[in-house]
Structure formats: C-alpha cells, structure tokens
Design brief:
Length: about 210
Amino acid sequence: MTSDWASELEPLAPDIVATWRGIEAEQFLSVRREVRRRAGEGSAATILAQLERLADALVVIVERLPEAAFAMPGGEADWTVAETVGHVASSRAGLAMAAGLAAASRWPSAEAPVVVPGVPGAAAAPRADLVRKLAQSQRIIARSAGQVAGHESEPCPLDHPLVGRLRCGEWLLFAGVHDLMHLEQLHAIEADLATSRLALANRLTPGADPSR
C-alpha cells in the first residue's frame, strides 16, 4: 500500500516516522539502530511532542471511520478495528509508564515483566470510548515523559519479545513506532472501504461519485 499518510505525518513526527520506515522496508536491524540514535539524552520532550501528533492522527482516523468499521477485521490477528484501537491506546500508555517508572527509580522489585504484544482492546468499545482512551493514553505519556526527561539513557527492565530491552527514552520512541504500525492498518482499512464504496457506486450508476 502507499504511505502518503506517513509522508504527511513525517514533518510532525520525523524521528518516529523515520524509525518506523525500517519496519515498512523490513530492515529490522535499522529500527533498533534508529531508536538508539534518536532517543538519547535530551530527547524526551521532542519525542513527547511527536507522540502528541500521533495521538491526534489516531483520533482523526477513529472519528472518520464509519461506525460499521469498528466491528470489521482490524488487520491484526482476528481482532476487530475496535480491539486494535483499544490495544494501541493501552500499549502506548503502558510502554511510557514502564519507562517513567524505571527513570524515576520506582520500578517494582519483582522480576521484570515481559511484554505480551497480542492483547486486544474491548471488542464492543464504541467510538467515543476509543477516542477517550487515546486521549487518556496521551496524558499518561506526558506524565511519563516528564519522568524520563534527563534519564533517557538509563536502562529499563521491561522486556519485549520482539525488541528485547530498551533504554527509558527508547521506549518512548518505540511507543510511537508501534502507533504507526497500527495506523498503517487503519489507513489500509479506510482505503479498502473507499474502494468498495466506489465499486458499488459504479455498479449501481456507472460514473457516479460515491462521495455525493
């Protein structure tokens, strides 16, 4: 699929989009390298601002999708769109909270948890709840980024089965990369819906404009 939506986001979230492009191109070693390069000391405020723009982008597409879309396949395993969006909201908040706790030396003494990446959100969550959860996630990220500021290069015990352990500042950036992975799915779903509407309109009335 095209990534015009990503090109539009790139000026607003350049570090996160540049890192995500390694996943898009299946150059996975470059992802970790870019995370390390772009999330060093003093990066928390910059990455926070970029995460705010991604939260805005998530809200925009959630508000734009038709109501029926939320029960459709969401592009991840057998999840619906509602489950995928709920997963994004909880994951971005959880990764940032982990980074904040580690940066503030408030990490629980128990064994470091392993991230379970395949946890969907609520299947029946309505649009308004999803928008609210995304806004809540950004408030959590803002608080956590304040804790991470000045401690970006400190280690975080959180363990992810795909990327292993990252530093505190790196988790903030990776939360944004994760956002983009699911934004790509949501944009693909929106494009498929538009194509289906166009095909239906052309069958019913050749040459018709389905947006009218």
